[in-house]
Amino acid sequence: MIYLTQLIYIHEGQEEAFYEFENVVLPLLWKYNGQLLLRLRPTSSTFVDNSIEPPFEIHLVAFENEDGLAGYTQDETRKSYLHLKEQSVKSVVLIKGSQV
């Protein structure tokens, strides 16, 4: 299994574009043997300590293998909605790992 953690920062006022993008692309994970394990929208009260800007959302996604991840990133439907991601997402911190 491949695990991806994303700390997602969005442009202020672009929440609806972000939600529209997510509503289309997240269901595509299953097509590529991927799974959304967690989708968190943290608030200031949920942080015990932090030295970075709190993200808008945190996603934990798993794929069975690299082929599934590659297929998802190249999916034509997903690619047709990337303009919404580009419009709404300021930056993403991507952490890739495996279970130990």
Automatic annotation (TrEMBL):
It comes from the Bacteria. This is DUF1330 domain-containing protein.
